[in-house]
Design goal:
Layout: E1 9-10, E2 17-18, E3 23-26, E4 29-32, E5 51-53, E6 56-58, H1 60-75
Bound molecules: zinc ion (2 copies).
Length: 76
């Protein structure tokens, strides 16, 4: 086995390096725990209550307001 240097993962939100102690993974993206929050209201999110759209994170309320409402406008 060749030696694999630990690759430094980048936070999807702030694009800075993420280390193991502060690492979160959601939807195939890496985040700092601190950065895993709603794009709109900055509410900290949990893995069981977040929504994701185009790389942005939303709480359920803002996801409905920002994403579902907009999609509804486009299709009508
Ligand atoms: Zn971050
Ligand atoms: Zn929100």
């Amino acid at each position: 086995m060749p030696f694999q240097p630990p690759k430094t993962e980048k936070c999807t939100t702030c694009t800075k390096s993420v280390y193991a102690a502060e690492r979160m993974e959601a939807g195939g993206n890496i985040y700092h725990k601190m950065c895993f929050k709603c794009t709109c209201c900055k509410m900290p999110l949990k893995l069981n209550n977040y929504q994701q759209s185009e790389g942005n994170l939303y709480c359920k309320n803002d996801y409905q307001k920002e994403i579902l409402a907009k999609n509804a406008q486009i299709t009508t």
